[in-house]
From TrEMBL:
Residues 1-27 form the signal peptide. GO terms for molecular function: polygalacturonase activity. The lineage of its organism: Eukaryota, Viridiplantae, Streptophyta, Embryophyta, Tracheophyta. It comes from Linum tenue. Belongs to the glycosyl hydrolase 28 family. It is found in: Secreted, Cell wall. This is Polygalacturonase. The active site is at residue 260.
């Protein structure tokens, strides 16, 4: 990689991630929580009102019988605190003070009467025995909410022996902020966003064992207007996965690794399936990841698509597949007619670093629907300080600036 006087991306990101005061300045146990402790982000007008800050009426889970011993079942107390807060005509907060609280699978239902804040200062843990999750498919679920903030705390699902359900799930919700949380050891996905609109995920720390299957850091499905701003993700699967029906996604300041990188897909599992469009990933680092920037689809007929995607200012540190499109995902190689997912308008700009494999750029596209409009601009990837190579199958596009390895697009 060419020498530069500017600091490496990884250092810049660490400064960005940790410099703005502490991770979060959380409020005390008073009954009224001032909104100024939550956020001054300009894109979140629902946190403010003219003439002053919004104040939240606090419902402390300890007052409803929660035990901060990490063993007693605090699920009923959390449910009661939420129900009371949700009925409030004033903005309300469910407050989880310092300590460790054990929760079984729980649903925080909406809609609520006003703005809601779920404010954790302590640690929430899942039950130690997998059978206590039953067939729920989730651990903590926020459902049908508007103007919700999930603030702070550590969530440890203790899922090392059971990898089959999501840790924190948000479904059919709008105007949501998730800020300053730490998620550990999920049963499946750490954080799932499903059928949501206008969600900000900020200053997150996510970690699971490297060999844990299906532990996506952030999994986004059928959602619109999603922003991820600052996250450290270490996991056994995709750091971020963007699924069908998702559009208008902005990702910046993510440090991924170990893990499988940032992925669009898998797409095309179903014949009639929505696509993915308007995805922008910037100013991020992939460290020793299996993949860096990946688009993947099933090798079967479908109406799905990927279009208008930009990957920009990305540093690769020994990633095995830094840039990859794979449209031949077909387990057991049975009934694989070729992918019908149409991939077009994907730009890779200012991608620098090292590849752990000799093939640093791999575009393996569908014979029935070739990739079009792929653009490489100032892409410089090396393999053990040597020139790496690129592979193209049914892929077309253009190059500009310095591109190494040399483009394999047909002229």
């Amino acid at each position: 990689m060419e020498k530069s006087n500017s600091p490496p991306y990884s250092i810049l990101l660490l400064v960005l991630f940790f410099s703005s005061s502490s991770f979060l300045s959380l409020a005390s146990s008073s009954s009224i929580l001032n909104d100024s402790t939550i956020s001054n982000h300009r894109s979140l007008p629902h946190h403010r009102k003219k003439g002053g800050h919004v104040q939240y009426v606090t419902h402390n889970v300890l007052h409803y019988g929660a035990k901060a011993d990490g063993v007693s079942d605090s699920t009923p107390a959390f449910s009661q605190a939420w129900e009371e807060a949700c009925k409030s005509s004033r903005p309300a907060s469910v407050h989880v003070p310092k300590g460790t609280y054990m929760l079984k699978p729980i649903v925080f239902y909406g809609p609520c009467q006003s703005k809601m804040l779920f404010h954790v200062e302590g640690k929430v843990v899942g039950p130690k025995h997998y059978w206590e999750f039953g067939k729920s498919g989730f651990w903590i679920l926020f459902y049908k909410l508007e103007k919700l903030t999930i603030l702070g705390g550590t969530y440890d699902a203790q899922g090392s022996d059971y990898w089959a359900c999501r840790s924190i799930t948000i479904i059919q919700s709008r105007n949501v902020v998730v800020k300053g949380i730490k998620s550990l050891n999920p049963q499946m996905f750490h954080l799932a966003i499903d059928h949501c609109h206008q969600v900000l995920l900020k200053k997150l720390y996510i970690e699971a064992p490297t060999r844990s299957p299906n532990t996506d850091g952030i999994h986004i499905m059928s959602s619109e207007g999603i922003t991820i701003a600052g996250a450290v993700i270490k996991t056994g699967d995709d750091c971020i996965a963007i699924g069908p029906g998702t559009k208008n996604v902005h990702i910046r300041g993510v440090h991924c690794g170990p893990g499988h990188g940032i992925s669009i897909g898998s797409l095309g599992l179903h014949t009639h399936e929505a696509g993915v469009e308007n995805v922008f990933v910037t100013d991020s680092v992939m460290t020793r990841t299996q993949n860096g920037l990946r688009i993947k689809s099933w090798g079967r007929k479908t109406t799905s698509f990927v279009r208008n995607v930009v990957f920009e200012n990305i540093a690769m540190e020994n990633s095995y597949n830094p840039i990859i499109i794979d449209q031949n995902y077909c387990p057991y190689n049975k009934n694989c007619p070729g992918s019908g997912v149409k991939i077009s308008g994907v730009t890779y700009r200012n991608i620098h670093g090292t590849s752990a494999s000799p093939i640093a750029v791999k575009f393996v596209c569908s014979a029935s629907r070739p990739c079009t409009g792929l653009q490489l601009h100032n892409v410089r990837l090396t393999y053990h300080k040597a020139i790496a190579s690129s592979v193209c199958t049914h892929a077309g596009g253009g190059v500009s600036g310095v591109v190494s390895p040399r483009s394999c697009f047909r002229k």
